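check these tokens.
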Amino acid sequence: MSENFIDVMIGLEIHVQITSLKTKLFCGCSSDYRNLPPNTNVCPVCLGLPGALPKVNKKAIEKALMVAIALNMKIAESVSWARKHYFYPDLPKNYQITQYEGKGVASIAKDGYLDYYLNGSVKRARIRRINLEEDPGKILYHSGSMLTSKYSLIDYNRSGVALLEIVTEPDFRSSKEVLAFLRELRTVLEYLDITDLDLEGAMRVDVNISVGKGKRVEIKNIGSLSDIEAAILYEITRQKSLVEKGIEVEMETRHWDQDKKATFGTRAKESEEDYRYFPDPNLPPIEIDRDLLGKIAMEMPELPSVKRRRFVEKYGISEYLAHAISSNRRLAEYFEEVMKGTTINAERAAALIANDLVGWIGAERIKEIGNVVPPSEMAKLLELLRTEAISIKIAKEVIPELVSGKRLEDILNARGWIGKVSGEELSKVIEKIVSENRKAVEDAINNPRAIQFLIGKVMEATNKKADPKETYELLAKRIDEYKQKRRV
């Protein structure tokens, strides 16, 4: 069923762990809690024991300010803290230390935006606010899901890890817009070294959806882009069906069931009054030093959008390839390092890196690209291609062997791939192939696609040293000459 329904409104609450910090937000416990025995990475502060006092990790504030600058936000004069009250097993204090727009407290930043790309067009999503808050503990289900497990377990190792809550306005109308925005946001966070998105639970998204004049439904804690897309499509379809039957859509909180690929209701949606926000008396406001803010802005790495524009202007590559190369900070740095060692056309280099090299390495290993194939080896390969010492076909076949750990020189020597067959030498090879394969030539006259068989023969005869484009052009010309001669 189509998701393009009248008045679909989607807003996001994105929770991002600041995994680049060494300690939690309000205590000295390690922020690296994964793979530790349950409930061992805890202290009186993150367990909320009576008398324990929190102390702010100021590095977390600096990281939040970096994100606020990157998202074009209005930054508060001071950082203040609020208590958000709710009762749930993963929250030992029965309140969460967070931020809130209200009397005596404020978000660290508000009213920003992020531009993102979809189908070649630039779209803009407004960012309502950014809050810095503590992550709750983690609930583990013994078997199955929340609905089917006989009991649940609590691990407080995660409790107190610094969390950024990024809240958007309901500016999205489809899952495609949501995914394009999240990909851009993930790239920004990766460039700023905020979080390692490969870690389980590093980013969780709450999706708020309303259809028509129905009330807002929140789907909690979705972890992957594929599940976010599936949950949005399911929920739009569910709400549309209710509206068409004249049934009112209730304001509620739902969860996404990965196994059933469906959302299910868990509770009526609370209003903000239910959380009884008030300033945390243990944490006085911290004034944001304007000099510090300026220093952070000066030292921030080049953002993806700026890098894309520079790649187009400096290297003359297409916007498409600039977008592909800059989609990952390590990949962008790798491309620039390679270009220091070659004078090949940058568009050609970018295409081979983005399409072939990345394809063989795989997205999960992209952070290691410089170790898998050193930039100097890739630059040498591109130089051989530029000087026509090898053909593009050989270059493409060398890349997977480079990825497997072999050295460029060893590969070329072992395969006898140094040197290119071109011009008069290639014409002689083609003449021989045409004379030995008359039936294939007849086939190519009747069906132009059959020329691929003859191209394959030429590649075989030249040990792949012929350029496919030149081979095609010479073969097509020779077949046409044969065709004309046959008529005479």
About this structure: The two ends are 61 Å apart (CA to CA).
